[in-house]
Each structure stands twice: as structure tokens, then as C-alpha cells.
Request: fold
Amino acid sequence: MTQKLAYRAIRNKKEGQMMERRATKENMTKIVNEAEEAYGVRMKPKMIWRSLTNRHVSKECRQYWWKALHDAFMVGRHWLRPKMPDNLKARATCARCGVLESMEHILLKCEETERKETWARVERIWRSTGREWPEITWGAIMGATAVVIRNNNKERDTDAENLWKVLITESAYGIWKMRCERVIQNEGKSFTENEVENRWYGMINRRLTLDRNTTAKHLGKRSLDKEEVRRMWQPILAKDTRIDSPSPTQRA
Reply:
């Protein structure tokens, strides 16, 4: 490699890193502002980053959240890089909606069934607990890991916070997984409402089982408190008979 090519490679790498850092900063600013509107609390970016290590955020969701915060998924504008072949540039557009795709579009605006039905399920189960349902925005979703919820006495309700973290993180990650399955494996074929419903209940029941299993004493410091898990899940166990029941049959 000549000195000229080496210099160009270093410059391109630095420019790419600067663009990614700028994208992350802009993304975080939007999240902080919208999270404040949704939750009434001004979060600092470091609070959101640190919240990814919370024990009620699963490893899979933590990895998804980290990449989403950095705008690191290969969706939308990332397919429009100058040297990208034209046939691949077409992947930048949401086939269903005909607009430039983004993670925000996938989670909040896409007309596909997995998005609409998933959030409908989450809203219904959350409202059944008697708690207020905030407007679901990009900031409300991505700031959910650092959410602060207060009860009628203005005291922090950590049980509600933990349940909200689970419902939002698992549901958002579930939408992303179904989107990828639909686009890549199913060649764009939409899920039915029943399929999305079964997926959602299956996911919630697996997470409930995981939380219960994680209360085992042999896990030591990694274990969850049994009473904390019971308090967190009880409000929705009492409202929906399909939670804490055998997982429904899912499409292979």
C-alpha cells in the first residue's frame, strides 16, 4: 500500500467514526427530549447508557438497545452509501410504506402488523394495571431502560419501573425480530394478527419463566429477589389469563 492510499484509508476511517459519533449524539439528544415529554423526567445520556446494565434488561435486549442507540443496524440510510450497488440501495426503502426505513420507522410508524399489534397488546396490558399510558415515541421506547415512575404519593414505584422495562424492551426487540423474519426469511409476507399475538404472549411467558428461574439461590449475586419478581409481575398476572400459561403454538 502506498503512503497516499494509507493516508486515505486513515482519513476515511476517521470520517466514518466522526459521522457515527455525530449520529449517536443526535440520536441521544432526540431520545432525552422525547423521554422527558413521556415520563416527566429529564434523563442524562449517561443514565440511559448505564441503565442498559439493569438486571431487568435481558442480554439480547441490551445488545439490541446498544446498537439502536448508536444507529448501527444496517437499515435505511446505511444502504445508500456511495459505493453501494443499486440493487442493494433498494433495501433502504420500507417495501410496505414506500419511505426510507429507520429503526424509528420500524418501531413507530410502519404499517406492518407486527408493529401495530405488538404495541396494542402492550398498551392493553399496561392500562389494565391502572397506570397511565404515555405516548409511545422514539424517546419513550429507547429511554424506557432508565424510566422513573412515581405512585400517587410521589414515591418511586420500582416494581412498576421494572415491569415497564421488561414490557417495552422485550416488545421492541420482538418487533425488530419479526421485521427481520418477514423481510429476510418470509420474502415480505406479513404476519397475521393472530401470529403476532401468539408471538407476544410466548415472549412474555418465556421472560416470566426466566425471571422466576433467576431467583434461584445458587446464582448468588446474579439472582433476582423472589419477592421483587412477584411484586413486579403480579399486576398483569391478575389481569390476563394467557400470561403464566403454556406458550401458544408459534409459526415455525
Observations:
- The chain has a mean pLDDT of 90.
- Residues 215 and 224 are 5 Å apart (CA to CA).
- The two ends are 49 Å apart (CA to CA).
